[in-house]
Specification:
Strand content: 5-15%
CATH topology of the largest domain: Rossmann fold
Number of helices: 13
Number of strands: 7
Largest sheet: 4 strands, parallel
Mean pLDDT: 78
Strand order of the largest sheet: 2-1-3-4
CATH architecture of the largest domain: 3-Layer(aba) Sandwich
Low-confidence stretches: 206-212
Length: 307
């Protein structure tokens, strides 16, 4: 089983130093390296890039493809899904060693059928929707832009109006009660420059940070089979239906549980929809169904409370 390493940079003024560091820390044994020519456009679909094409031609079933970060290979949600389809077809594993997708096995297969786990697509779509890929991509573009500028002897970004010890002086004075306008006049800069220097000290900054919720990440819970059977016949929205359809069945004696991967708010929606299993409102309560719902409720209750 070979370890195939794929590397890419955006221009010939950048290096693979960061990728080399991440991959070296991963301890990959006997890597076979495929590195794109820096002149290859990053706008190309991954499956159209020459070196990635060579990698796929070289690969054999059971080999593993290694990349430092997801954005070294792809540029968007659909690219990920396209690549996963090909890797699954060729029976190749994929390992991402840094960034938002590094904790996932994106080519995991069902132990019985050998099929690509359908929950993988759901997790990819959820994380992409949460902006994780775009944030990683933006970090790459910023990092690569700065490296390109340094290669030309330039430093990236506009030179700040306030720098060094002056920033410390301004921040100290602001905390002591001096106004932004007074500090701008004293240092002969714009009010915007002072505001930038003290931005994290402003009340509205603290309030905004507290009010911005962190994106929910998918959580896998075992849903009792009786709950899953009830929900399959219920009226669900598209996200709920997708999560339920992509659940993995785990046989347990005479029954089963459905291993469902979804963000916490979807699990809470499922729980609310199966409320009739508790009986009431003219509906009979079947003890086995009520017990199953309460088992699921106990699992959902362990999730972080929603906003």
């Amino acid at each position: 089983m070979a370890n195939l390493v794929y590397k890419r940079v955006s221009t010939d003024q950048q290096s693979t130093a960061r990728q080399d560091l991440v991959l070296a820390e991963a301890g990959i044994e006997d890597p076979v390296v495929f590195e794109e020519d820096p002149g290859t456009s990053s706008r190309l679909h991954p499956l159209q890039r020459p070196k990635f094409g060579e990698l796929l031609t070289y690969a054999r079933p059971g080999d593993t493809v290694h990349i430092s970060e997801m954005f070294r290979l792809v540029r968007g949600n659909q690219h990920i899904l396209d690549v996963l389809e090909v890797l699954h077809r060729d029976q190749l594993a994929l390992r991402i060693h840094d960034g938002a997708f590094s904790a996932m096995d994106l080519t995991a297969r069902h132990p019985r059928t050998g099929e690509l786990l359908s929950t993988v697509k759901f997790m990819v779509q959820t994380l992409a929707a949460a902006g994780e890929l775009q944030r990683d991509l933006q970090r790459e573009l910023t990092y690569d832009g700065l490296r390109a500028a340094e290669a030309k002897g330039n430093k990236g970004g506009r030179r700040p109006a306030l720098a060094g010890e002056t920033i410390t002086t301004v921040r100290t004075a602001f905390l002591a009660g001096r106004s932004i306008a007074a500090l701008a006049r004293e240092h002969n800069v714009s009010r915007g420059a002072v505001r930038t220097a003290v931005d994290d000290l402003l009340p509205e900054h603290v309030v905004a940070a507290e009010e911005t919720p962190a994106p929910e990440l998918p959580v896998t819970l075992d849903m009792p089979g009786k709950v899953a059977d009830f929900l399959r016949s219920a009226e669900l929205d598209a996200v709920e239906r997708t999560a339920l359809d992509q659940g993995v069945t785990v046989r347990r004696g005479q029954g089963y549980t459905l291993r469902v991967t979804a963000i916490p708010s979807v699990h809470r929606q499922f729980l609310a929809r199966c409320q009739p299993l508790d009986g009431g409102h003219g509906l009979p309560a079947i003890p086995a169904q009520r017990k199953a719902r309460r088992e699921y409720e106990n699992r959902v209750s362990t999730l972080t409370p929603g906003p």
